[in-house]
Amino acid sequence: QVQLVESGGGLVQAGGSLRLSCAASGSIGSTYAMGWYRQAPGKQRELVATITSGGRINYADSVKGRFTISRDNSKNTLYLQMNSLKPEDTAIYYCNADIRIRVGPRADYWGQGTQVTVSS
Description:
The chain is mainly beta. Helix content is 0%, strand content 62%. The protein has strands at residues 2-7, 10-13, 18-26, 28-39, 46-51, 57-59, 67-72, 77-82, 91-101, 106-110, 114-119. Strand 9 (91-101) and strand 10 (106-110) form a beta hairpin. The chain starts with a strand and ends with a strand.
């Protein structure tokens, strides 16, 4: 009933930039906190950044000052601007959203992921 679709991943050289987008669609009643997570090969999924519906933001220490999370509530879309990328940022990036559907419960949803590869 709810789909999250990420886009914007790709291959970039160290020091470059990428902008990820995540569009939520379906029978959406309310969207609460949204966030980006990533998982590198052989590692656990980790938090990158989150943003509440009111705009409160939290970043992982490893991305502070380089990444910027934002959202457009009118479009149910989440963004992640990634600057000064490093090889250690290489991972699959996942979008997450806490959504209450129009007639139903509140639940946690995940996108399918988008690959970000940073070459040295």
